[in-house]
Amino acid sequence: MDGFISAVTFVSRVAGVVGAFFIAAAVLIICDMVIERYIFNLTTIWQIDAVTYLTIAATFISSPYVLMTRGHVNVDILPLHLKPRARYVLALVTSFIALAFCVTLFVLCAAYWYEAYSERWLSNTVWRARLWIPLLSMPVGLFLLVLQYIVDIYCVMTGRTSPFGISARQDAEDVAREQAREALGGAP
């Protein structure tokens, strides 16, 4: 299982880098669009579609990295005030619900992607992009997210990580102090 955890962790990190490159590419394309349109007075054909597709791809592809690093918005008021056993149960219940949601979304997005691929859908813009290409990021990103959820659940169940990243010895004040220290860049 250690090999699986290492592989998923590695793939999640790569996915985070790919998502960052997609965002950087979208920014560069927006700059190109502004230059072409407002400086050279040229029409833009593909830029808006490309930026939209890259932003969606970055969102889906980098989602396992965000989960792995706990980079998502997290309201931890309830877990902070629960006893360790209740915190553990809450972490598992919410993780299994999130996993079920992501599996369902993966199945639906994979079917949607397959329909776009098999029926040769094209965008209804002048660019006429083949839609299966940008839509592929949805099932791929969700599949990687499902793998990351499986790793997270396994790590919580086996005690490798603490539920919600809060150890059994920490209380609400300890966590608040630690978060404040992190926000201030390690200052005392």
From TrEMBL:
<feature type="transmembrane region" description="Helical">
    <location>
        <begin position="88"/>
        <end position="113"/>
    </location>
</feature>
<feature type="transmembrane region" description="Helical">
    <location>
        <begin position="50"/>
        <end position="67"/>
    </location>
</feature>
<comment type="function">
    <text>Part of the tripartite ATP-independent periplasmic (TRAP) transport system.</text>
</comment>
<dbReference type="GO" id="GO:0005886">
    <property type="term" value="C:plasma membrane"/>
</dbReference>
<keyword id="KW-1133">Transmembrane helix</keyword>
<keyword id="KW-0812">Transmembrane</keyword>
<dbReference type="InterPro" id="IPR007387">
    <property type="entry name" value="TRAP_DctQ"/>
</dbReference>
<keyword id="KW-1003">Cell membrane</keyword>
<feature type="domain" description="Tripartite ATP-independent periplasmic transporters DctQ component">
    <location>
        <begin position="27"/>
        <end position="157"/>
    </location>
</feature>
<feature type="transmembrane region" description="Helical">
    <location>
        <begin position="7"/>
        <end position="30"/>
    </location>
</feature>
<dbReference type="GO" id="GO:0015740">
    <property type="term" value="P:C4-dicarboxylate transport"/>
</dbReference>
<keyword id="KW-0997">Cell inner membrane</keyword>
<keyword id="KW-0472">Membrane</keyword>
<dbReference type="InterPro" id="IPR055348">
    <property type="entry name" value="DctQ"/>
</dbReference>
<keyword id="KW-0813">Transport</keyword>
<protein>
    <recommendedName>
        <fullName>TRAP transporter small permease protein</fullName>
    </recommendedName>
</protein>
<comment type="subunit">
    <text>The complex comprises the extracytoplasmic solute receptor protein and the two transmembrane proteins.</text>
</comment>
<feature type="transmembrane region" description="Helical">
    <location>
        <begin position="133"/>
        <end position="151"/>
    </location>
</feature>
<dbReference type="GO" id="GO:0022857">
    <property type="term" value="F:transmembrane transporter activity"/>
</dbReference>
<comment type="similarity">
    <text>Belongs to the TRAP transporter small permease family.</text>
</comment>
<dbReference type="Pfam" id="PF04290">
    <property type="entry name" value="DctQ"/>
</dbReference>
